[in-house]
Task: inverse folding
């Protein structure tokens, strides 16, 4: 191995194992401890900020500097990155798209054999578009993520699905990505209530001076799904002949709140704006259940039941199906 290659390997080892000691680094490089320190010196001369800490818990680590340290990817890592971008349904071949532009910079910085394989996957793979996805503006998203991290209140300009626009002040708790949609989970200061706003509908973000503390033990994903289950047009209530743990494993949390009625029976209370969709989700329950609230949901279940029976050849479809 050439000195240059060994120096790059030393950088990769320090980067991948923060706190690595000189003797461990020497062992990985197959050189003496003195030589390992010399390679660290070479990296520092190249402008890479390698920090060293003395003591039993000390060692080498990459510090923060003004220059971006070299990026070193293996073939599997590079292809995995491209596949992750494609899984997100981005147009990875569009150089004008922020994701495509960033990916192109990474490709140009890689060794030719690795870059060639990345380009082959990038150019020949056509991801199916996720029609339910709604990608927000990157600058808006970054501003909200930073406000969450800094625990700073923000003023949002928002546009609803119906086209109504308003400004509101919120305490941003977390940014959550769910099924291709980005949400801001927050507390509305004016209403003193929990809210979830679609970030693609945010028209502007102003970070304010006020700070806040998020609720202790907050689970952003679970809280978002609970929030999405309430407040819709039709209130629903379903009694399921199965224990709570068994029901929770087969139903999405967005259908509503589950509570045990007894050791063998569970109550599901939620809401929906689409009774047919809600009835279709209830089919996932592998136990007898009864819709005891919401006439619209009962009628949707009857319609769905007739459709399923007709598909099985046991019932002649009615004209209204």
Result:
């Amino acid at each position: 191995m050439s000195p240059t290659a060994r120096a790059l390997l030393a950088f990769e080892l320090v980067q991948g194992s923060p706190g690595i000691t000189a003797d461990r680094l020497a062992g990985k490089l197959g050189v003496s401890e003195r030589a390992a320190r010399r390679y660290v010196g070479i990296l520092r001369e190249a402008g890479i900020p390698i920090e060293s800490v003395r003591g039993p818990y000390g060692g080498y680590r990459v510090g923060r500097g003004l220059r971006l340290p070299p990026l070193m990817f293996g073939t599997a890592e590079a292809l995995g990155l491209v596949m992750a971008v494609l899984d997100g349904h981005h147009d990875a071949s569009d150089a004008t798209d922020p994701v495509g532009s960033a990916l192109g910079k990474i490709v140009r910085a890689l060794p030719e054999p690795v870059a060639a394989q990345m380009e082959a996957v990038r150019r020949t793979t056509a991801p199916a578009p996720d029609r339910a996805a709604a990608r927000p503006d990157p600058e808006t998203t970054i501003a909200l993520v930073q406000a969450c991290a800094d625990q700073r209140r923000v003023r949002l300009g928002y546009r609803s699905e119906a086209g109504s626009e308003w400004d509101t002040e919120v305490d941003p708790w977390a940014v959550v990505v769910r099924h291709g949609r980005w949400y801001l989970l927050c507390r509305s200061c004016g209403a003193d209530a929990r809210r979830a706003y679609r970030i693609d509908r945010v028209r502007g973000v102003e970070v304010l001076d006020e700070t806040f503390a998020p609720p202790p033990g907050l689970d952003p994903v679970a809280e978002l799904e609970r929030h999405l289950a309430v407040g819709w047009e039709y209130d629903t209530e379903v009694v399921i002949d199965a224990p709570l743990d068994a029901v929770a494993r087969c139903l999405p949390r967005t259908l509503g709140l589950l509570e045990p009625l007894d050791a063998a029976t569970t109550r599901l209370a939620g809401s929906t704006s689409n009774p047919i969709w809600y009835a279709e989700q209830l089919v996932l329950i592998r136990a007898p259940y009864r819709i005891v609230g919401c006439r619209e949901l009962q009628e949707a279940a009857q319609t769905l039941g007739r459709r399923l029976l007709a598909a099985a050849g046991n019932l002649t479809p009615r004209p209204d199906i």
Observations:
- The radius of gyration is 27 Å.
- The mean pLDDT is 83.
- The longest strand covers residues 165-178.
